[in-house]
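Researcher: Before we compare anything, I want clean individual predictions. No alignment, no superposition, just each chain on its own. First chain goes here; please echo the sequence and then give the structure tokens.
Model: Echoing the first chain and its structure:
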Amino acid sequence: MIMGRTVHRLLSGGAGAVAAPLIFVLCMSINYALVPWVCAAGHPMVLHGVTFTAALLIGLSAWLSWRDLRQAESAPSEASGETGSRVRFTTRLGLLTSGLFLFVILAQWIPQFILSPCEP
């Protein structure tokens, strides 16, 4: 049973390291695919909705990594051993990666407010 919890903590803590870049790529791909429809229909707020949703999902992955990091750090160090070090590493990696990609999403959202997607 302990092995199952450890594997779960490793996967959930490190999920931010995988989920954040994946969400970023999906956001950029969806936004690029929607530009012709947005220009034809005249609904630029759809692009903002996609970016906002991506920022929320990355924020959620950061929160999950932070929660798992707090649980890993509150566990007794002699009981967790080497596996505890791995869990702390993966949760920190997930938290930092999520933070980086949240910053990137927000930085790339700024031009959406300034520039029109329909300009030639």
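Researcher: Okay. Second chain, same rules.
Model: Second chain and its structure:
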Amino acid sequence: MLLHTVQRRSPGHLRVEPPLAFLLLLLFFYAPAPAAAVVTLKGARGLAGSAPSSSIGRAAEYVPPPSFGPLNSSANAWPRAQSAWRRRLLKRSEAYVKELGERLKDDSPSDGILWRNLSHFNGSEADASVPWKTLCAQGVMWNPLPDPLLQWAQQNASECAPGDIVHSGIGDYIGRSDVALAKCGEEQCSSIVNVGCKGTKYRICKKGSVAQASLSGSCLRLRPPGQKPSQTSTGPREPQQKEFWRQFCAHNAQASSFRLLFPERLCSVGKVLTGPSMSTEGGCADLVQQDAECSQIFDFQAVTASAPAPICRCVAKSAKCAAGVEKKPSGNVYIIGG
């Protein structure tokens, strides 16, 4: 606090009495510090009641000391909230990793239908051609699908009343079962009459029709309970590309089954085979089977910077493979049927 003494224009000087100065010091050290404090001291004559010619004041102003402590750019709760959020995410990730580890662990030989003991994945199960051979053996890729109408329950010697017949608009009869199924789906029919029960002529019965005896030997195909009309007119799609699948399965039946014998090795000797199918290991195995001089052992080298084309070689029946110890990353030795 700065204490100023102002001289009056009239003769004589103001002076601060000791008791007043002592009170000012007490006020400076013990009074609460306001943002700005102004103390005005009146002259002696002002204290005596005479009007002063000018104001005489002493001002005191509080200036807060500078603070050099760190200032937070955000609330104190923000770091704690972020830490809790990260811990939540980490716990979820750790739980997911633990669950994956439990799922993939080979727990016991008595695994369920969806999980099998890892030691069982060998032999024919490791042969990628097994699913294709099974598919070809069934012939489902070119054989016609069974008639969906045959899956409907049949009621012999029955038909619906003439008044319950839906006029198809394409004649008195429908000559194909798939067309009859589609028409039944459009009309929400209850059944289909198989005229004469021979599978050559059909009629559609209205929804809610009642069956009656048939004198012509017809039979009724009853729509399954709960089947929606949209499911009546749609069914499995007929096999596509039938000729392709016939050729594929014919080739697959003659394809050679082979397995890896020496990985990253090549036989010391071998007969080079050429042909349109030598670009893969399977094609190489087919060439080995067609050559009478070849044994069941062959090696195959894929395309590399030093070998711009694949190399297929077989070991002659009178020779030995004698694969060296030097590794050949692009080559492998195989055996057919072993």
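Researcher: What stands out in the second chain?
Model: The helical segments are 18-30, 44-48, 77-104, 130-138, 177-187, 229-233, 242-254, 281-290. Additionally, The first helix runs from residue 18 to 30.
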